[in-house]
Amino acid sequence: MNLVERLKKDKKGFTLVEMIVVIVIIGILLAILVPGMFKYIQKAKDKQILVDARTAYLDVQMAAQEAYGANGITGTNVESAFKEQLAGVTSQQKVTVTAGTGDGAKSVIVTVDVPENGTLTVTDIDAATGKVKAMTYVRGDRQITMTDEVWGEVEPVGSGD
């Protein structure tokens, strides 16, 4: 009897079945949680793209407003000049916007800061006010478009075409 009691006292640790149960439970939890984590990570990245796009928009809007009255650049000249010069602007670039023709041509140098290696394309500027009405910001394989001063959702490049 003494031998049986000693064997019971010396028994320490987990059985193989207990270990397998723990591993299965951890596997089930990971199967449920990991896909959700990736969704939250993508949402955070999309929010950062939106913030970067709005930062670039404010930069371009400020530049457009400054250029609108500077050096006699007005009206449709600003619209066509900005749309041409701000098509595919990347990183921090100095862009020379020249509007008008002949002796009436005026130019202004605008520095546009496009965050995080994105690409900015201005597609519509109000000729009467110089306000940026539409633009697209692309970073990597994601894009966001602003149309009529309303921001869309961040989506894969090409899905909004």
TrEMBL record:
Alphabetic keyword roster: Membrane, Transmembrane, Transmembrane helix
Gene3D superfamilies recorded: Glycoprotein, Type 4 Pilin
PROSITE patterns for this protein: PROKAR_NTER_METHYL
Transmembrane intervals: 20-38
InterPro entries to which the protein is assigned, alphabetical: N_methyl_site, Pilin-like
SUPFAM superfamilies: Pili subunits
Signal peptide annotation: none
Domain of life of the native organism: Bacteria
Pfam family, one: N_methyl
Record-given protein name: Putative major pilin subunit
Organism encoding this protein: Eisenbergiella tayi
